[in-house]
Design a protein that fits this description.
The protein has about 400 residues and is α+β, with helices and mostly antiparallel strands. The chain has nine helices and 19 strands. Among the domains are: about 90 residues, Pdz3 Domain, CATH 2.30.42; about 180 residues, 2-enoyl-CoA Hydratase, Chain A, domain 1. The protein is globular, with a radius of gyration of 24 Å.
Length: about 400
């Protein structure tokens, strides 16, 4: 049974590759029976065979018949076969992980890690920075959303899976990694050397801007709802007239936290639905939060608001609880699960798609804002303040 559901992009931290369901299971190894080499035939077989039958047959023939026995490495062949099957799916969120990578993937998003402090994803088959964390080594080195990572310590990322690239980039504090970065809007890449550090992953910040409550949710970690609840109580004492939820470059996180956060703004009803490969839909509803506000909301979005933040904005938009303003979001609406294989390696595989309460597909489409803005930083925040004030009149 699933232990936790996560809907985030990968973090370049020491201990977090967990993106979705933490599930363990096993699959069968290749058959151990001796093969029979078929006689040559000019006519095709008429019997029905499955894909695994052919894989097993090829495996057995190679092991029994290949002329140079010392070149046969079962571990390498197994890994190559699985990687080939995964690559044939052409899904950036489905991948094979070595035993080492799989063990790293089992760690939860708890708040403090070691690494460079950035979220990464795949866009147009390129490894990109989705968001550097505030005051992280990545941010201090000048990395920004949309920057492409071309090389890690001289090795091209085009030849790596997402997980392999992450494993090479992160590491213990005090050590360094050299990245070749193509900054967004630039034509020539540059090398950036970053010293890894211990990183306290932020979740929620809050301040009053006049009579408007401004919340910045950086990601949905296991402490997000606790932090947000305390800040909502503080807000209630300050006679706020409106709320800004800044979800720009928020890569997602733990789904249960997304549901809890949404439940502060949506009293009842479905928050998100999941449709599996059999067409079965499973819905999750608001959980009746202790603190519920009816204040008007502006949710700020950008091209790097992804996954869990898209779930939240989709629900707020469908229920008319917020005006989404900014840019179309990232479009990461797939549900993924980990499976551990018998040798300790693992598969991270897409098993379903997220839908908004009204049945809108997030994957590959994202959330279209109600109001498109070509504003950034504090300018977008000021626009949201002015918008909320204008609606009172």
């Amino acid at each position: 049974m699933p232990k936790a559901i996560k809907v985030t992009l990968i973090t370049l931290l020491l201990a977090s590759l967990a993106l979705s369901f933490n599930v363990g299971c096993t699959i069968s190894n290749p058959l151990n029976s001796s093969p029979t080499v078929p006689a040559a035939s000019s006519s095709p077989r008429t019997s029905t065979v499955t894909g695994t039958d052919v894989i097993d047959e090829a495996w057995q023939i190679i092991h029994n018949e290949y002329v140079e026995k010392d070149k046969i490495n079962s571990t390498n062949m197994t890994e190559a076969a699985i990687r080939g099957m995964v690559e044939a799916l052409n899904d950036p969120y489905t991948s094979y992980m070595s035993a080492q990578t799989y063990q790293l993937s089992r760690s939860d998003i708890s708040g403090t890690f070691e690494g460079i402090g950035a979220f990464v994803g795949i866009r147009d088959e390129q490894l990109i920075i989705v968001a550097p964390m505030p005051d992280s080594p990545a941010e201090k080195a000048g990395l920004a959303p949309g920057d492409a990572i071309l090389q890690v310590n001289g090795s091209p990322t085009s030849e790596m899976s997402l997980e392999e690239a992450v494993l090479r980039i992160r590491g213990p504090k005090g050590t360094s990694v050299t990245l070749q970065i193509l900054h967004i809007g630039k034509t020539e890449p540059e090398e950036v050397k970053i010293v890894r550090a211990a990183i306290d992953v932020p979740s929620v910040t809050f301040e009053m801007k006049g009579d408007i409550a401004y919340f910045r949710i950086f990601q949905f970690s296991e402490r997000t709802d606790v932090e947000l609840s305390a800040k909502l109580k503080e807000m209630a004492q300050k006679d706020a007239k409106g709320i800004i939820l800044d979800l720009r470059s928020n890569p997602g996180g733990v789904l249960s936290e997304v549901i809890k956060v949404a439940s502060h703004f949506i009293k009842e009803g479905v928050i998100v639905s999941v449709v599996d490969n059999q067409g079965k839909k499973t819905s999750t509803s608001a959980n009746g939060a202790d603190i519920i506000t009816n204040l008007p909301i502006v949710a700020l979005s950008d091209n790097f608001s992804a996954s869990g933040s898209e779930v939240l904005m989709g629900a707020l938009q469908d229920y008319g609880r917020a005006t989404v303003a900014g840019a179309r979001t990232y479009g990461k609406g797939s549900v993924n699960t980990f499976y551990q294989l018998k040798d300790g390696s693992g598969l991270y595989i897409t098993i379903a798609r997220w839908l908004t309460p009204n049945g809108r597909l997030i994957e590959g489409k994202g959330i279209e804002p109600d109001i498109a803005l070509d504003l950034h930083g504090d300018e977008a925040v000021q626009w949201a303040i002015d918008y909320l004030k204008s609606k009172r009149n």
